Amino acid sequence: MADSSVEIIEGCRLPVLRKNQENEDEWPLAEVLSVRDLPRTPLYYVHYIDFNKRLDEWVTPDRLDMKKLQFPKKEARTPPKNGLPGSGPGSPERDVRKSLDLSVQSASAPSRGKTLPAPKRRAESVSLATQASAATPVPSLPSSAEESQAPVYPALRDPSFSSTPREQHQPLAALTTNGSTRRLIPPQPGRKRKTCGGTDEDSQDSSDGIPSAPRMTGSLVSDRSHDDIVTRMKNIDCIELGRHRLKPWYFSPYPQELTGLPILYLCEYCLKYLKSLKCLQRHLTKCNLRHPPGNEIYRKGTISFFEIDGRKNKTYSQNLCLLAKCFLDHKTLYYDTDPFLFYVMTEYDSKGFHIVGYFSKEKESTEDYNVACILTLPPYQRRGYGKLLIEFSYELSKVEGKTGTPEKPLSDLGLLSYRSYWTQTILEILMNLKPENGERPQITINEISEITSVKKEDVISTLQYLNLINYYKGQYILTLSEDIVEGHERAMQKRHLRIDSKGLHFTPKDWSKRGKW
């Protein structure tokens, strides 16, 4: 459907033919990011508007609907005054000077609140992903002081109490508060939420009922201020890792000379990248590793976890970050890996320990983050390994005696995985509560947080998302419907992979002592 008489340039928008999940034809609107002129036919790299970036691809002209072609709009410029550049009311130079003045003033002014120290020893970063959408206000919840004093008492159903969506619910517990309270209106779990930027990956915990905005000060949160057309495009066509071939989803800053290769070869043990199969075979004769470097801190069956210090094993850690960046868009890759620990999950067979996924965390986190980046490699996704990684991160937090939360923002897949894990973990506790002295069971938010090491804000947001909290006679009542109970039981029957704390051999270190870095 392409018209050869019209030239398509970068920035144009038009419908492009693609197959949806049902293998049906659809024509979503797409933006042309790059044009590659080949001898036979040109190719166009397109980004589908309102779709995740991992679906971006090169397309041929026959998939373009030229009848609805939209050319990029030219930006209106203010004419110069008296022939002097930058003298107009909206000139970029003046705006830059104003922003610089404001930043200097804000930096010199004394801060009233608590300031967060910048992460230590951070090297120059490559900014590769967008910030999450701004947080939306959510209903007020009891303060931390109230929560700590708010036991869950047994509640009896009053005939006068009626709630249309809760007619079949059985009250599990009531959360009382000291003093006056405002009614909590949790979001409906089936309701679609509007996202900024139009992509589903921008949906964050701010729309899921977390009482505060997601923090953007984490160690690996990306910054789009340096985003350009190069980093918006995938630069690696295919990666061969052991017995798997992977199609990258996003840009990763591998060396420029390797980006034009049809296949990039990686050693599955040390993750070194090589340009040809012959180079890989020669490398394997010299590579002594058959497992990730570092200490094996967990083993059960064929699953093992290795703890890797980003300072002691710098080359491996950097190679791991390069590989992970192919499948993570919300995080920034740092070449200084010293402040991080990497926990690599592997699957063992007769040939060695094969990498399945990993997560990283800061040695010192000022905001109780227990995960910086987390990834399950595509060949192992949808098999329960993602929840196993999450469960292991919280198992480490239990040993450390802390509550933890993942670094924000989460990707779309990461958000789904965490929400599912929090749901199953909290429901498992609530359903296993035993009545005492003939009374209904009681538990506090703080107790749930201490048992699971899940941060209180994440516990509350999960209860809100599931719509379990109801307000009745001055107290918060937790109710479980039959649908939620049945759905939880079905989900737990499918969840075969679990962390066994007996197989964990881990001693936390005090990283505040610089000598241990």
Automatic annotation (TrEMBL):
InterPro entries assigned: Acyl_CoA_acyltransferase, Chromo-like_dom_sf, Chromo/chromo_shadow_dom, HAT_MYST-type, MYST_HAT, Tudor-knot, WH-like_DNA-bd_sf, Zf-MYST
GO BP terms, alphabetized: cellular response to oxygen-containing compound; double-strand break repair via homologous recombination; positive regulation of DNA-templated transcription
Intracellular or extracellular location(s): Nucleus
EC number: 2.3.1.48
Active site: 407
Comp. bias intervals (Basic and acidic residues): 69-78
Keyword flag Thylakoid: no
Keyword Chaperone: no
Region named Disordered: 69-224
Catalytic activity: (2E)-butenoyl-CoA + L-lysyl-[protein] = N(6)-(2E)-butenoyl-L-lysyl-[protein] + CoA + H(+); L-lysyl-[histone] + acetyl-CoA = N(6)-acetyl-L-lysyl-[histone] + CoA + H(+); 2-hydroxyisobutanoyl-CoA + L-lysyl-[protein] = N(6)-(2-hydroxyisobutanoyl)-L-lysyl-[protein] + CoA + H(+); (S)-lactoyl-CoA + L-lysyl-[protein] = N(6)-[(S)-lactoyl]-L-lysyl-[protein] + CoA + H(+)
GO MF term (any one): histone H4K16 acetyltransferase activity
Superkingdom to which the source organism belongs: Eukaryota
Domain (MYST-type HAT): residue spans on this chain: 231-508
Principal subcellular localisation of the protein: nucleus
Assigned GO CC terms: NuA4 histone acetyltransferase complex; nuclear lumen
Top enzyme class: transferase
Keyword terms, alphabetized: Acetylation, Acyltransferase, DNA damage, DNA repair, Metal-binding, Nucleus, Transcription, Transcription regulation, Transferase, Zinc, Zinc-finger
Similarity remark: Belongs to the MYST (SAS/MOZ) family.
Protein name (record): Histone acetyltransferase KAT5
Higher taxonomy: Eukaryota, Metazoa, Chordata, Craniata, Vertebrata
Gene transcribed to yield this protein: kat5b
